[in-house]
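Re: beginner question about structure tokens

> Can someone show what the tokenized structure looks like for a real chain? I only ever see the sequence side.

Sure, here's an example I had lying around. Input first:
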Amino acid sequence: MNKSELIKTIAEKKNLHINEATEVVNLLIDTMKESLIRGDRIEIRGFGSFKVKNYEGYTGRNPKTGALVEVLPKKLPFFRPGKELKKYLND
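And the corresponding structure tokens:
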């Protein structure tokens, strides 16, 4: 499911206009992004949690040429599914 399919599904299930459903989905995503940027952890009970992991820089190797490459430090989002979601998917 992509973003537009999610919007369409919400609009149909809650009898909303597409523009209203779009606004709700965009607000949710923007709020989550802002929270992660601040370094906050997001927990949605029964679904999972989101957080940002910090990775240190290191010296790597280009697999094609073998040349040394400096990999800069970075932050990446990380999702950990909740127990209920894992159980739901495996039952």
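Each token stands for a local structural state, so reading them left to right follows the chain. The chain has three helices and five strands.
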